[in-house]
Amino acid sequence: MYLEGEGDAMTKPGNRFFAPENPLSNSLAPIKDELAVQIQHLNFAFGKGDLCKQVLFDISLNLPKGQIVILTGPSGSGKTTLISLIGALRTVREGSLRVMGQELADMRNADRVRVRQSIGFIFQSHNLFESLTARQNVEMAVELLGRFKSKRDQAEVILTQLGLADRMDHKPQALSGGQKQRVAIARALVNHPPLILADEPTAALDKQTSREVVTLMQTLTREQNCTVLMVTHDNRILDVADRIINLVDGQLESDTNPDAFINSHTYKNSKHDDAKMFIM
Amino acid sequence: MPFPKRTPLAWLNLVHDRLRFIISLGGVAFAVLLMFVFTGFMNALYDSQIQLLKQLNGEIIIINRLKSNMVLPASFARRRLYQALAFEGVEAAYALYTSDANWKNPETKRTRPVRILAFNLADPVLPLPDVEANLKRLQLPNTALIDTQARAEVGPTTAGIVTELADREIRIVGTFTLGTDFASGNGNLIMSDQNFLRYFADRGPEEDTRSFATVDVGLLKVSPNVDIDALVATLSDRLPQDVSILPKEGPAGFVQRERTYWQENTNIGFVFSLLTLMGFGVGVILVYQILYTDVADHWAEYATLKAMGYSNQFLLGIVLQEALILSALGFLPGFCISNLLYALAGGATGLTFQMTIARVGMLYATTFIMCLISGAIAVRKVQTADPADVFGG
Ligand SMILES: Nc1ncnc2c1ncn2[C@@H]1O[C@H](COP(=O)(O)OP(=O)(O)O)[C@@H](O)[C@H]1O
Ligand SMILES: [Mg+2]
Fold this sequence. Notes:
The structure holds 2 protein chains of 2 kinds. By secondary structure, chain A is of the alpha/beta class. Helices cover 31% and strands 22% of the residues of chain A. Chain A has 9 helices and 10 strands. Chain B is an alpha+beta fold. Chain B has 2 domains: 9-49 and 267-391, no CATH class; 57-247, no CATH class. Chain B has helices at residues 9-16, 18-55, 79-85, 129-133, 135-138, 193-200, 228-238, 254-265, 268-297, 299-308, 312-349, 357-383, and strands at residues 60-64, 76-77, 90-104, 111-119, 143-147, 162-165, 168-176, 188-192, 214-215, 217-222, 243-247. In chain B, the strands form 2 sheets. Chain B has a 9-stranded mixed β-sheet with strand order 6-7-5-8-4-3-10-1-11. A two-stranded antiparallel ribbon of chain B has the order 2-9. The interface between A and B is medium-sized, with 38 and 29 residues. The structure holds adenosine-5'-diphosphate and magnesium ion. Magnesium ion (MG) is lined by residues 79-80 of chain A.
């Protein structure tokens, strides 16, 4: 059932990986190494005592390497929380969460910092330093791994791939919204991280730019055989995904391929002629 | 191509907004200026007390045992100088006579107290070039040299002035440059011991009469290679106990003793240290504001760096680098303007404003610490940047 990391096989529609019904059986699977992310019985709550508010309930989920997964669901359902747990930005206290084989539960802060270095983050806002050029912003990511000699070349290659060859020495101020987000993507991809986490990366972009940015992301991550987990509300870009996970009130509600997802959601809301309903 | 280095994020963040950067440097420079001005006044007040003493030409000083400072008018018997001369290693003994007297400002005709320094013109008591050049003229009766650094109340300080000193005519035949101190009143005059007698030997029933029998400060010239401390000990032991014998230099010396006296017996140190501390505080607040604004403005970016895998220490390093850049670049203009102010203040007050390397180094270290403290406070803010906050905008 697992794909043996074949990039082209992953692109074939209909060939999907689904989390097993019984996560325990999965932990025994010999091909565990093929999992970029392995989540078992994950619970998460904000606050303590009376103010304690549980946000994620018994999440079990596996993301095999090379898959592009879209995480969707109503606002406040816990998508951002889940993605920040996977990104080692919050501490996992209940359940198990493995990223590239490393258990994040109760991990020391210094180790979490190291795990983050193997993850590419893309946020809703680009978060580029206004004082740095596009190239320097990307180079900051390369420097993290101490590759000072190759940083310039690496930054140039990735920015060129993202169509920013003539924008490399511009500061964010001189770039359009789509260009800035592409720089942010370049920064996330430049180190070829095995895992990309994106939280509504196209929310600030118009329709056409969103499409461009997502297509570029798809092409590059496929080339790098990179696992992508992307939160989005944007139904126009669902087709880039191999798999769509729907999170409702902190629980996994469905886990299907895009076609099935659209069908099921339009079926439920038959008076709508497209898949827009699942946005909310 | 030069070896590619780390992106100088701290520097680029600081200079990104040129105007803000210049205002920031202005703020640091202002704090530096405040500290320079206040420590400058403090040091000038102390330095001024000892500038005459430092010029005196002798390795060992003899004074009246009771003369704890230069303001106190206590003289000792000149015999002591001759007694000291008898000791092995003492080559020469000179007498310096001092007295206060009223000087009439030739322009306003108002009288002001000044101090007269007098000595035998054959003795090199005050080997200032201007003094040595004018020795011949000082041999004439009723003549003196005037200090160009005297206070404005004294009037013009140029050769050729004829006015009154202690109700007697005096002619200024030249100038020298020394400066005022607490004992000098509004300024110093130099004259020969012969003239000194003319003015002060007989000043009427209310004033002390002066003669060559008593000396205010005695100077001993010592032969080369003589152990001064040992000689001081011998002299102290063997001369009558009505005089104090001190080496001129050194931590227990005459010059340092005068400085210590004023440090311990005035509030100068306290007041100016407090003012300097205020300047320091102003600097800490200003730099903190600058760094805090930078952190606040780049909150999402710094959190993103953390999410990317940059450690807290890296971000602390950025803030501290910014602090150091501000301290270095803000110090320079502060230092330059302070130099200018020292010259102006020195001219206006007659005090000696010295910009010594040690003091500049000291104030740079203070500025550095000032920025470091601000950096340390601002850094705590960065540490709280939660990388999880960047998600979800
Ligand atoms: N830092 C936080 N502290 C407390 N509650 C939070 C925090 N962040 C999110 N929440 C709560 O957790 C729930 C899930 O939020 P989130 O993961 O941001 O949802 P989504 O990204 O799906 O919109 C929401 O009810 C939200 O109010
Ligand atoms: Mg969210």
